[in-house]
Amino acid sequence: AGGGSAGPGGGGGGGGPAASRAMQFAPPVLAATGTGAPRIEARGQPAASVQPAPRIVLKSIEDVIALAEKNREIQFKIALERDVRLVGFEQGRIEFALVEGGSRTLPNDLARKLQDWTGDRWIVALSQEAGAPTIRERREAAEQQKITGVRAEPLVQAILDFYPGAQIVAIRDGNEAPPPAPVERDDGEPDLDLDALSEYGDDDL
Q: N or C end of the chain: smaller count of CB under 10 Å?
């Protein structure tokens, strides 16, 4: 019958749809994997390998408090300093007792935040043991010990005798920034600034 299919060089519809598709599309650059799923082969320079983030190692409750401050969890940092009586600490596990009035949700809150901050799972347990003094208690005890030592110095004793009822409220090192202006006391008695007193000698009194 007339109108038969054209030869390889002919016009018309020679070769059919399959031949037409073969001319229009280049074969994809694919390689088979072990599972049979194709993957695209990388060409040119190999991509740099992604290094995992370094693991955050915490060795003490002070490290935890510093991490809370770094993440700007200031109220949570204050709660850890004020309410936690440490019983045990190791990487991945913390055990502590609460001071009277401390939040009972603090252990769960701490475990959740530590996992968010470090990427590791932490177990935080509430203990019935007494535990160590809190960070705030230790800080206040150290400050009181410094005040007791300063109070025994002759110059300070003379000032305290000159101003009955005066109190030593703080001791600053020479490199520390000055504190905010003191709040006026109700009893009319002055609070001693030992840094100011250090400018005077025994002969000035």
A: N
